[in-house]
Design brief:
Layout (H helix, E strand, L loop, with lengths): L6 H6 L6 E4 L9 H6 L7 E6 L11 H12 L4 E6 L7 H15 L3 E5 L8 H14 L4 E5 L14 E8 H4 L16 E6 L6 H11 L3 E5 L18 H10 L4
Parallel strand pairs: 1-2, 1-8, 2-3, 3-4, 4-5, 5-6, 6-7, 7-8
Length: 249
């Protein structure tokens, strides 16, 4: 199978504490059921991204305040969504958004969406992450590359999103060899368009590639016209149960 590219990676990934990273549901007014489900006891959640309006918005949103408060009261990390636009966005704008997430929503950390992958951008991302940690003690930092970046990025953040895309690509994906040097809790995979009948296969790929934080959905992007992460998958209860009981190798 193409996703089993390294015996080292496979060996390191056979005893995972798998859980969900939620890339960001639609606004709580649009997706109230989704936000309510996240606080159900026993749901294996690692964190939830709060994206008010492609960032924190211009002013505190009462509905997002309520949703974030329920999550934090349940002991679930809330990460503020920061779009770094592949490194093109101004440093000051990113940090300004981070301050608003902290002041308004008491964010536990940050998700740097559209994070660059090349070595040349490492210094700028390190500068951003260092500043985020300075303004928020114990900030949980996730870099949303969506593919395998230069390995130097692994030294800057708590987690890296090394896959974000459709099931048609994921089922044949290959893990970068350098990831075997890190534990599975350092990596995240987001996969859309996963059919219900392929959930076990998708979970096995994540385990063998060494990603402990996942989000799988049967929603699709409809050729880029729809955000597949905005709504909960139709098999949410089933995948919660499968992660809770584990997947046989």
């Amino acid at each position: 199978m193409p996703h089993l590219t390294s015996t080292t990676s496979g060996t390191a990934s056979t005893d995972l504490c798998t859980g969900f990273g939620i890339p960001g549901f639609a606004h709580p007014l649009v997706a109230p059921v989704e936000w309510a489900e996240l606080t159900r006891p026993g749901t294996p959640l690692h964190w939830v991204v709060l994206n008010v309006a492609n960032g924190p918005g211009a002013r505190p949103d009462p509905h997002c305040l309520e949703a974030a408060g329920r999550l934090r009261n349940a002991g679930i990390r809330v990460l503020g969504h920061l779009d770094v636009t592949h490194g093109a966005r101004a440093f000051g704008e990113v940090i300004s958004d981070a301050h608003r997430y902290l002041d308004w929503y008491r964010a536990d950390g940050f998700f740097l969406d559209r994070c660059p992958t090349e070595r040349a951008m490492l210094p700028e991302i390190r500068r951003t992450v260092t500043t985020l940690r300075a303004i928020r003690d114990d900030a949980h930092i996730v870099l949303g590359h969506g593919t395998h970046p230069h390995p130097g990025y692994a030294e800057s953040a708590d987690q890296l999103v090394t896959f974000s895309g459709p099931w048609s690509d994921y089922r044949w994906s290959q893990v970068a060899e350098w990831t075997a040097d890190y534990p599975p809790d350092r990596f995240c995979h987001f996969v859309h368009g996963v059919p219900r009948g392929h959930l076990d296969e998708a979970l096995r790929i994540a385990r063998w590639q060494g990603a402990a934080t996942i989000y799988f959905t049967d929603r699709t992007d409809r050729c880029g016209r729809v955000d597949p992460w905005e709504a909960m998958p139709g098999y949410w209860d089933e995948i919660v149960s499968r992660i809770g009981t584990g997947v046989s190798e």
